Amino acid sequence: MAGGPAGAASSGAAGQQIYPIKSLNPYQTRWTIKARVSVKSDMRQWTNAKGTGKVCGMLLLLLLLLLLLGRGSYLFVRDNSHVRRFCTQLFHVDLVDAQGGEIRATMFNDSADQFFEIFEPNKVYLISKGTLKFKNKRFNPTPHEYELTLDQGSIVEEALDDRTIPHTNFQFCAISSIADCQADQTVDVIGVVTEVGNVAEIHTKAGKDLIKRTLTVADDAHGGAAIDLTLWGGMAEGFDGTVGTILAVKSARVSDYNGKGLSALNSSVIEKNPDRPEAYRLRAWFDGCNGAPSVVSLSQGQYRAGGGDGTGGPGGAGRGDATTKTLGQIRDEFLGHAKTDYANVKATVALIKHDTDPWYPSCPNMVNDRPCQKKVVAGATGEWHCDKCNIILPKPSLR
Amino acid sequence: MVDLYWHSLSLSLSVVLVVRYVLTIRVNDHSGSNWFSCFNDVATELLGCSADTLALWKENKNEQAVEQAYNNATFRQLKFRIRAKSETYMDESRVKYQVMSAAPLNFADESRSLIDAIRKYQAR
C-alpha cells in the first residue's frame, strides 16, 4: 500500500480513531477518515509555463529513450528523472463518509500515478496523512471548506465495505428553488424525466464540436416545477433513460440563459432510478398524474417555443425570457424598436412567400470545422464567389 | 483554402453547393398579422424538407410536390419564438422579426394559460 504496509497495518490494528470528514482542518494533522469514493475523475494533463503534461512527457521520454539507445548511452535513468519535471497531471476523488461529510482529495504527478491504481469508485478506504488546503470554489463544488491533497507520504488502504457510508452524498434542493440560484452555482436535484431531447451537435465559438442532449426533469415540490437538464459528450450519447425515469443528479451547474437551466458537468454524478425514498415519492407522484404532471418550467429552451411562458410561475424571469404575446401586442408595444426583444407568439401561417425561390446557394468553405454558409454569387463567366471567404468556386453545381 | 474543400466535396470536377432556406412568411392571429423571416433550420422544420430537396424537385419539374410542401405548411397554427431586432439597411432602420423556433401547439400548456387568463378576469 501507499506509505508502506507496515504503517497501514499498525494503524489499522491499533483500532485508530476515525474522524468525521466534516471535522478535517489544516491545523490538525493526525487523523484518519473512513470514506467511500463517490466520484473518481479522469487523469488530467495540461501544459503550463514549466512544461507540458503527461502525454507530452511520455513522448519526450520515448524520444529520449530512442536517442539514447541509438547512441548506446547509459544515462537513461538520470534523464528519466529530468523528464519528470514536465509531468503535470492530476486527478481527484470525491470522498463521502457515514456522517454525511464530503471532501475532494486531489493528487498530483507521481502521487497521481500511484493512487490512480488504488482508488476505485464506490469502494471504501481508510485515509490518513494528507494535507488540507483551502479549496478553489470555482473548481471544487463539494460542501467542504477545504480540499485534501494526498502525496507520497499519505496512507490509503482499502477497507471492508461499510453500509453506513452512502454512495453519493446528495443535498437535494427543490427544482422550483433553482429560480433563486445564481448562474454557475452547483446544485443536487432529483426529478422525473418528462422529456428526452435528441442528441445534437453544436459548434462552440472556440471551434470545438460538442455533443449535447437536453432533458426536462420535474419534481413536485412547491406545486411542481420543471427545468431543462443538458448532458454533454458521452453522457449525452449514452443516456438510455426514458420519460418517467427518475434521475438524481449531483453537482449540476445552474445556467441563467433563456430562463434557468441545469448542465451536467464532468464532475456531476447521475444516478438513474436510485433506491431512495425521494425517488419512490416522485414515482408515485408521476404515476398519480398519469405521466403528465402539471408543472411550471423554469427553462425557456431556444428550441422549444412551446415551453412555459412563465406566467404565474415562481421565477422564469431570467435573461432572454419571453412572455407570450399577440401579434397586436408585438406591434403596439414596439418590440425590437429600442432594443432586441424576444417573444413567444401563437399564430397561424397564412402565406409562405415563394414567388422567387426562398433559398440561396451557400458557401461550402470550412471555417472552424463548419461550412461558412454565406451566400455565394455567380460571376459572369460561370464561377461563383463568396464575399466573406473571398474565394472563387469554379463551376459548382447545385447539390 | 479552396483546395481543402475541393478535394472533400467535389466529385469529378464540380463543387457541390448546398442550398439553404431564407424564408419569409406571413402570420396571422386575432389581433393582427406580420411578416416573419425563417432561416434554414426553422424553415426545414416548417416545410418538412430541406431546401436541397425542394430545389431538386423544382429542377426535375415536379411542381406538384413543391406546391404540396408549401401548402402542407400553410394554415397551421404554431407557437413561434421570435426575435424582434432593429436593423439598418440603406440608411433606413426597420424592425425585423426572425423566427428562432417554431413548434406545434402544446394543447395542455395552451389550455392552462387560457385558464390562467380567464381566472384573472374572474378575480377582478
Describe the overall structure.
- The complex is a heterodimer of chains A (399) and B (124).
- Chain A is an alpha+beta fold and 399 residues long.
- Helix content of chain A is 17%, strand content 35%.
- In chain A, strands 1, 2, 3, 4, 5, 6, 7 and 8 form an 8-stranded mixed beta sheet that branches. In chain A, strands 9-10-11-13-12 form a 5-stranded mixed barrel. A 3-stranded antiparallel beta sheet of chain A has the order 20-21-22, with no helix packed on it.
- Mean pLDDT of chain A is 78; it is low at 1-14, 72-85 and 302-321.
- Chain B is α+β, with helices and mostly antiparallel strands.
- Chain B has one domain: Nucleic acid-binding proteins (OB fold (Dihydrolipoamide Acetyltransferase, E2P), Beta Barrel), CATH 2.40.50.
- In chain B, the strands form 2 sheets. Chain B has a two-stranded antiparallel ribbon.
- In chain B, strand 3 and strand 4 form a beta hairpin.
- Chain B is extended, with a radius of gyration of 20 Å.
- The chains are: A alpha+beta (399), B alpha+beta (124).
- At the A-B interface, helix 7, strand 16, strand 17, strand 22 and strand 23 of A face helix 1, strand 1, strand 2, helix 2 and helix 3 of B.
- Strand 16 of chain A pairs antiparallel with strand 3 of chain B.
